[in-house]
Amino acid sequence: MNKESTQRLLALHYVYPKPLNRLMPLLKDDPALEFLHLRSPYDMAEQLQIPLPKATLLKQSYIHHMHSPFHAIYEKSRIHIVTCFDPLYPPSLLELIDPPAILYLKGDPQLLNAKEKIAIIGSRKAQNYSERAIKELLPPLLAEGFVIISGLAKGADAMAHRQTIDLGGKTIAVIGSGFLHRYPKVNEELFSLIEETHLLVSEYPPYMTPRKWNFPMRNRIISGLSKGVIVTQAEVKSGTLSTIEHALDHGKEVFAVPGDIFSPLSTGPHKLIAEGAKPVWNGAQVLEEYRQLRS
Fold first, then answer.
1. Are 280 and 256 in contact (CB under 8 A)?
2. pLDDT tens digits, residue range 109-145?
């Protein structure tokens, strides 16, 4: 896409921040969105399968923002834009049923396509056991140049990001809101560290607030960017396991850290192990698994 067509896609995504599969009906016959402003609300309602009043409002909002200086605004805020048509867009994300149409980035965009990436995730209630386990897992992975991906939530996610930074590695945080609404507030300092020399990723325009349904959507990106996923502590009924479902659906390797059999936070990893996940307690085991897959 050239700058003009990217501008139109940015405007559409600003007023209708949906994944690519939801936008495709508009892009299929008009990939540069040259004629979107001429479409009738009736046509848009039919194409997007939304109510007519919503389509009418959508068209009005789109026309209002057609010429908003998104490139300049985002550049001023040090936000990098990677659309699904951009060479930097990770091909693995296009394998999702609902790929992000646009990735909003802060930090080092080149980390997006680092060769070796693995996710470390777990419960927001994660305890000291997760911290110790992550500390044991990370050194061999970082020594091999793995970039660590997580969701910047409280608990295990924050532990994975912070320990990666402390050990001199690189990390990617995928968040469930726009950059103007950092969530959770308790990780404010970590946000700042990551956006300076690592990478923050969001599929939402900066104004988007954190909403409950954004986080399962975020999890598919964590899985999609990663070669595999390591789970520390998590309950069986946990948002953490939605990331695992995405990973399994796309043939990613799943690793689980065994835990205390009396802890509810061990039930998730133990269930995964019973279902075929590889039990790990050292990063070298993860590396060995990948070496076997390559041979």
1. yes
2. 999 999 999 999 999 999 999 999 999 999 999 999 9
Q: pTM (2 decimals)?
A: 0.94
Edge-to-edge strands, sheet with 117-121? 80-83, 102-107, 199-202, 171-174, 147-150, 117-121, 228-231, 253-256, 278-279
Q: Give the model's pLDDT for residue 238.
A: 76
Distance between CA atoms of residues 118 and 125, nearest Å: 21
Closest CA to 62 of 13, 98, 119, 22: 13
Angle at alpha carbon of residue 128, lines to 125 and 133, rounded to 5°: 105
Amino acid at 38: L
User: Is there a contact between 210 and 177 (Cβ–Cβ < 8 Å)?
Assistant: yes
Give CA–CA dist 245/50, Å, rounded: 28
For residue 25, pLDDT beyond 70: yes
Distance between CA atoms of residues 77 and 60, nearest Å: 26
Amino acid 45 reads: A
Q: Using alpha carbons only, how large is the chain's radius of gyration in Å?
A: 20
Strands (E) located in the chain? 80-83, 102-107, 117-121, 147-150, 171-174, 199-202, 228-231, 253-256, 278-279
User: Minimal CA–CA distance to 114: which of 88, 83, 95?
Assistant: 88
Report the SS3 class of residue 90.
Answer: coil
pLDDT tens-digit series, residues 83-114:
999 999 999 999 999 999 999 999 999 999 99
Residue with tokens 């992975």: 141
The candidate with the shortest Cα–Cα distance to 137, out of 172, 167, 174, is 167
Half-sphere exposure in the Cβ direction for 292 (13 Å, CA):
7
Find all residues with CB under 8 Å of 225, minimum gap 6, and list them.
Answer: 90, 92, 93, 112, 117, 119, 149, 172, 174, 201
pLDDT band for position 53 (cuts 50, 70, 90): very high
The predicted-structure confidence for 278-292, as pLDDT tens digits, reads as follows: 999 999 999 998 877
